[in-house]
Amino acid sequence: MSALVIESTTMLFAILRAAEDAEFDPNTVTPGVIGFIATFLVAAAVVFIAIDMNRRVRRTRYRTEIREKLAAEQAEQAEQAEQAEQAEQKPDPSA
Fold it and tell me: For the chain, which residues make up each domain, given as ranges?
């Protein structure tokens, strides 16, 4: 186990020394035009997905509000119909 640690440490230092000796060429590490286009497309996709999600959430919220209003109206109509039915069933005291 100890030999493995020593060997891996030695390899790591050898790699670091080789990396220090190499010249740094900024043209080989920059993404360039292709990277810019890819980043722009990802950003545009995220914006469009966020807009679409916002639209869908708003639509769902409005549908829920409408369902609640319709349920309240139906309950009110049922209550009025029940009250009218009870009023018709009561005998008229003046008759």
Answer: 2-84
Cα 69 from Cα 63, distance rounded (Å) = 10
pLDDT tens per residue, range 6-61: 888 888 888 877 766 667 677 777 788 999 999 999 999 999 999 999 999 999 99
38 Cβ contact partners less than 8 Å away, ≥ 6 residues apart: 31
Tell me phi and psi for residue 87, to 5 degrees.
-70, -35
Query: Could you tell me which residue, 79 or 13, shows the higher pLDDT?
Result: 79
Region label for 26, one of left (φ > 0), alpha (ψ between -120 and 50) or beta (otherwise)? alpha
Question: What is the gyration radius of the CA atoms in the chain, in angstroms?
Answer: 38
- Write the CA distances from 28 to 4, 24, 31, 36, 38, integer angstroms: 34, 9, 8, 15, 17
User: Identity (one letter) of the amino acid at 48?
Assistant: F
Listed in sequence order, the residues at least 6 apart from 31 whose beta carbon sits closer than 8 Å to its beta carbon are 38, 39
